[in-house]
Amino acid sequence: MTRKLHLNAFLMGVGHHEAAWRHPRTEPARLTDVRHYQELARIAERGKLDSVFLADGVALHGNVRHNALGGLEPLTLLSALAAVTDHIGLIATVSTTYNEPFHVARKFASLDHISGGRAGWNIVTSAGEAEARNFGLERPAHADRYARATEFLEVTRKLWDSWEDDAIVGDRVGGHYADTGKIHAIEHAGEHFAVRGPLNTARSPQGHPLLVQAGSSEAGKEFAARHAEAVFTAQQTLAEGQEFYADLKRRLAAHGRRADELLVLPGISPIIGSTEREALRLEKELEDLIIPAYGLAQLSTMTGIELTEDALDRPLPDVSVETEGAQSRRKLVVDLARREGLTVRQLLGRLAGGRGHRVVAGTPEQIADQLQEWFLNEAADGFNIMPPILPGGLSDFVDYVVPELQVRGLFRYEYEARTLRGNYGLERPASRYAAPREVAVAR
Amino acid sequence: MTRKLHLNAFLMGVGHHEAAWRHPRTEPARLTDVRHYQELARIAERGKLDSVFLADGVALHGNVRHNALGGLEPLTLLSALAAVTDHIGLIATVSTTYNEPFHVARKFASLDHISGGRAGWNIVTSAGEAEARNFGLERPAHADRYARATEFLEVTRKLWDSWEDDAIVGDRVGGHYADTGKIHAIEHAGEHFAVRGPLNTARSPQGHPLLVQAGSSEAGKEFAARHAEAVFTAQQTLAEGQEFYADLKRRLAAHGRRADELLVLPGISPIIGSTEREALRLEKELEDLIIPAYGLAQLSTMTGIELTEDALDRPLPDVSVETEGAQSRRKLVVDLARREGLTVRQLLGRLAGGRGHRVVAGTPEQIADQLQEWFLNEAADGFNIMPPILPGGLSDFVDYVVPELQVRGLFRYEYEARTLRGNYGLERPASRYAAPREVAVAR
C-alpha cells in the first residue's frame, strides 16, 4: 500500500488568523454556538480528514478587547460533535498540570465510548502564570511539569487498562455481569499521584485514546518520543521540518518504538484562492484587519520582550534565544525575524496568520505542492490544517485541496477504519493486565 | 396560573432496580452505548419532563460481579444528549471534593452554551473511602467536605458572573470585540481556593446552571437552603416527606430566600402495569432476579453493619441511628426495617428497587394518585422519577402516567420556556459585577 498522508483540522473559533473575526466571511457570534463546530466537523468528515482538534488553555489568554476569545471547553464540545458525525477523529487538549488522572482517564474513556472509538488527547503541561493563578499556584518549573505529565500519563494508561477487554461476561441467567478477576485495582503510588483504581468506566473501543503532543522543547520532544502517537509542530522551512522530523523519529528507538508508531504533523495555514491573485487578495484583506496593539501584546508574551507601537517599524530587538526549554516558539519567532530581516510590523503580519506556524497563500494546486513536498521529503507524515477563516477556509480546503491530493494518490478517498487509531494506521494497545495471560497461552 | 409539578427523569444504566440488567426487557450491553441515553432523553422530552439527571461517583461502587456497572462520565455524556434534544434539562453530578472550581465552572458554562441554557449541576461532596483513594487522599471529614463545597460554589458563581451579559461588543469595523471593563478578574482568595479569573468562556444562556443538591444530613440541608434550587431526596412516607419539605422551606428565609426559590423533588420508582396485577407481576419478576449477595454488600455499606447470608431471615440487628450527618440514608433504612418489622431479606427486596427511595407498584392512575397526594399536601414540588427498567419503565411513565397528570391539571402539555431554569420557574441570576452599575442607573 502506498503511504498516505494524514490530515487534521485544527478548529479555532472563527479562524486561525487573529483578525478572522473582523473578516466579512466569518460570524464571530458563532464562537459559543455548538452548531458552528458541528458544521466544521461535518465539513472535515466530508473531506475524509482523519480528525479535528481543539486547542485549550485554562485562563483567558490574549486581549479580548481585540479578538474573539472565550469559547467552549474542548471535551464538553467534542461529545456534541461525536453525536453528529460517524468517522472523524476528535482530539481535545487537556493539561496534566491542574488535573487529576482519574478524571481525565474517565472523560477520555467516556468520549471514546460515545464516539465509537474516535477520541484523542493532546497532552499539554500549562506553562503560563495566568493558568497557575486560576488554581491557587505559582507557575511551576518546566522540568516539574514534564515529570508530573509523565507520571500522570502512566496513571491514565493503567486506568484505561484496568478493565480487560473481555471483563464483561453479561450472563443474565447466572447473574454474572463481570469477571472481577479481569478488573484490576492499579494501586499506583508515585511521586505525584496515589491512585487505587480501577476506573469506573469499562474499557473503550480504542483501549487508549490517541495520544498527541505538541511541545517542541527538549523535554517536550523526549516526552513525545516516549509517549506520543502524533505530534503537532510549528516548522517554518522544509529544512527545519526535516531536522525536527528526523530528530523525533531517531529518538523513538531508545524507547523501543518503531518510526511509524509516531506521526509528525506540522501546522500549516492555507490561504486558498482559485487564482494566486485571489489568494493574495484574501491574505491582504486579513492583514489589513490586523490590530497592531493585539499582535504586539501577543509577540511580547511569546518572546518575553516588552514591545510598544514605537517599535513597529524597526527590527526586533536582540534577545537571547537560549531558552529554558519552555519556549521553543520564542526561538522560532526570533529566527524567523532574523532570517528574513523583518521589521516588527512585518513580523506581526507573518505571525497573525498562524502564531508561528507556516502560512501559505496560493491556489489549491500550489497548496498541494507544498504539502506534497514536505510529505515526500521526510518533513511530515501529514499536516495540522489551520484555516485562516472558519468555516470558509476549511470548506475551501476540503472542496479544492483534498481532491487535488486524492488525484495525486497522496490522500484517501474513503476512511479505512471506524476508529481514529485505525485511520492513523496505529495499533490498538492491549491491556497490560491481560498480557501475561496471553503469553502463557502462547507457550 | 395553577401550580404545576416538575418531573425529572433519573437515568441510571438499564434501570434503577438492582436486578434490572437481568430482566428480559433490558439490554445491559447498552450501558456504554450513547444511543441508549439519547433514546432516554428523547423519551423524557416527548413526555415534556423538565430534565434528565445522571448520578455519579468517582470510584467503582458496588460489586460488578453482580450488577451492570462501569458506565459513562455524566458531563461528557450530557453534551451528546444536548445534541439530539431541544428542551429537556440536563443535570450532571459533579463532586466538589476532588475537583477544581475553574474546571467545573467552565464545563458547566460550556454545557449551558451547547444546550442553549439547559445545564444543571447536582453538587455532591464524595463521602466514600473508595473515591478518596483514587485521588491520593484519605476520606475527608464530613464538615470539611461541606466547608470546601461552600467555598467551591462561591468561586464557581463568581466565575460564571465574571463576564457580564453585555461584555461582548462585537464591533468588527472598529476592531472592538469585548468591553474589558465588563470582564472581571474575581481575585478569590479563601481557605480552600485562590482563583484569579476571569473564566475563559463567555457568560452562558442561564447565567448559572441550575444548582441541585441531594444530601439530607443537617449539613446537607443547610447547604441546600443556602445554595440549591432543586433538591432530590429519599422519603418513604407522606409524613416524612412533609416534615422534610417543611424543614427545608423553613430554612430558606434565614438566607433571604423565598419558599418558591427551591423545589423539593422526592425520588420515586414507579413500577407500572396496565392493571395492578400486571404491575405486581413486574415487581415480582424483578424481585426474583435479586442476588442476595449483592444486596447484602450494598446494605452493609449503607448501614455500616457487616451482614452475611445467615442474617437473611432474621430482623436487622440493632444499631445506633445517631449518625455523623454523613449518612442520613442509614437512618432511613433502619427506620424502614423497624417500622415495618422487616427481615433482612424483606428489607433487601424493598431496597433493591430504589436504594431507599420510595417504590410504588400500580396502574398509571394509582401512580398518579400517589404523586398528586404528595404534591397537594406539601411534601413535594415535583418528583425525581427512577424507572425500575430502562428504557421501558421511562416510556411507560411518559406514555401512561404523564397524560394522567396532564388531564388532572397537574402537569404541562407544552414546555413553557427554552431553558431549564425557565421550565422549573426559576429566575436567571444577574452577574454580581453588573449589579452596582444597574442600581446607579436606577437612581
TrEMBL record, chains A, B:
It holds the Pfam family Bac_luciferase. It comes from the Bacteria. Residues 28-374 form the Luciferase-like domain. InterPro entries: Diverse_substr_monoxygenases, Luciferase-like_dom, Luciferase-like_sf, NTA_MOA. Signal peptide: none annotated. Keywords: Flavoprotein, FMN, Monooxygenase, Oxidoreductase. SUPFAM superfamilies: Bacterial luciferase-like (SSF51679). PANTHER family: ALKANESULFONATE MONOOXYGENASE-RELATED, C2H2 FINGER DOMAIN TRANSCRIPTION FACTOR (EUROFUNG)-RELATED. Belongs to the NtaA/SnaA/DszA monooxygenase family. NCBIfam families: FMN_nitrolo (TIGR03860). This is LLM class flavin-dependent oxidoreductase. It comes from Nonomuraea rosea.
